[in-house]
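Re: beginner question about structure tokens

> Can someone show what the tokenized structure looks like for a real chain? I only ever see the sequence side.

Sure, here's an example I had lying around. Input first:
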Amino acid sequence: MKVLVSGEVHVDYGQVFVESGGDECDLYDAFAGQEGVGLCGAGTDGTLLLLTGLRIGGVRFTVELHDSPPALDETWEEIVEVPFRPVSQETKLRQWNGKASWELGLEERDHRVRYSATGMDDGLRKNVREDDEPRTGDRYLLQFWPASPEPARVLKQTGTAAANSHAFATSPVG
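And the corresponding structure tokens:
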């Protein structure tokens, strides 16, 4: 296992992205075809849209690369998995405002992605966190490993913020 990112990532509109030269995605396109799987939208080639509970501010965020599927850690409150394939040599975790990004170094091959969260409802209640304020309880883990494409799926859902995201991903556009 290799840790690619570990620390605070700033979110705006409760969003952060993984991009590999694909098109920018909007909220509806990101979750298209995921049949009720919110939190991590993989509907746009080469892009992931990751949702957080906190709307604006810094959240604890870790990104890992594994050689094989990591053990499922049930201590996380929210867990989803989606397929992802980078479409260029560069794949970055990028803040919504574009002020910072982190190179992930993923190969152009099929990956499985597990996005786990804890404390999303704390972040949702706080809504906006200024830089000089204490962190909220929300934190996020994004894990990649090589794997053949499989449909997106919810592995665990416990909170209101995640339920709302999954409901949005189920709703028809418009």
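Each token stands for a local structural state, so reading them left to right follows the chain. The longest helix spans residues 160-170.
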